[in-house]
Amino acid sequence: MTRFSRSIVLLLIILAFGEMLEARRGRKRGGKPKHGHGKERIKGIASLLSDLVRANPEKLCSIDVVGKLTISTTGTDSKTGVLNTEGAMCTETTNDATDYIAIDLGSVDRVEGIITQGHSNNDWYVTEYKVETSDDGTTYTAIKDENGLDKIFEGNFDNQTPVSNAFPETVEKRYFRIVPVSIVGEKCMRVGLYDCESVLEVLDLDDDDK
C-alpha cells in the first residue's frame, strides 16, 4: 500500500468514526442524528470501519514485535526481521525442516493472524509455512486446520508484498514460531502479528445499542 493510499484509508476511518459518534450523540439526546438514518446509519458506518480495518491489518492492527524476534540458526542478515525493514531473517541453510523464526511477545497476548514478507533486496521468500504456539516457550503446538492437521498457510508470491493470514481461531499465547515449508531462493522472512478485534473494540464497533 502506498503512502497516499494509507492516508486515504486513515482519513476515511476518521471521517466515518466522526459520523458514527455524531449519530450516537443524536440518539442519546433523544432526537434524530443530524443526517438522519439513526441506528441503521450507525450500523452502516460501523460496518465500513470494520471492513477498512480488516483490509489493512499491517497498518491498522499490527502488534509490536520489534526486538521480539529470534531465529533458529545464526544465518540472518536483518537486525529486526519485522515488516518493511531492510533485509530479512534468513536461515543458514535451506534444507533443514526444523528451521523457524520465533516471536516472544513478552506476555500472553491475543493474536488474530500473521503477516509475512520476503527479503527486501533479493527475490527470496517463503511461499508456505506453519505457525506453532506455546505457553511456556518450550512445548509448541501447530495451529490446526479444519481436519485437525497442521495448517499450511499460503505465504508470499514475491519478496516485497505483505501477505496476511487469519488464524482459524483467535489465539491467546506468548510464544510463536513460524516454520517455513516451501520457499523461493533462500529461506528468508520478515514477519508481524495482528489483532484487529482489539482495534474494533477500542472503536466500539461491535456495540450498536449504546
Could you give the topology of this structure?
Layout: H1 3-28, H2 38-55, H3 57-60, E1 62-63, E2 69-71, E3 89-90, E4 101-117, E5 125-134, E6 141-142, E7 153-154, E8 163-184, E9 188-194, H4 196-202
Antiparallel strand pairs: 1-9, 2-4, 3-9, 4-8, 4-9, 5-6, 5-7, 5-8
Average pLDDT level: 81
Quaternary state reads: single chain
Q: What is the SS-derived class?
A: alpha+beta
CATH architecture of the largest domain: Sandwich
Number of domains in the coordinates?
2
How many alpha or pi helices? 4
- Number of strand segments: 9
Q: What order do the SSEs take from the amino end to the carboxyl end, as H and E?
A: HHHEEEEEEEEEH
Main sheet overview:
9 strands, antiparallel
Unreliable stretches (pLDDT < 50, length at least 5) are 1-5, 206-210
What amount of the residues lies in strands? 25-35%
Overview of this structure, please?
The protein has 210 residues and is an alpha+beta fold. The chain folds into two domains: 3-55; 63-196, Jelly Rolls, CATH 2.60.120. Helix content is 26%, strand content 32%. It contains four helices and nine strands; from the N terminus they run αααβββββββββα. It has helices at 3-28, 38-55, 57-60, 196-202; strands at 62-63, 69-71, 89-90, 101-117, 125-134, 141-142, 153-154, 163-184, 188-194. Strands 1, 2, 3, 4, 5, 6, 7, 8 and 9 form a nine-stranded antiparallel beta sheet that branches. Strand 5 and strand 6 form a beta hairpin. The longest helix has 26 residues, at 3-28.
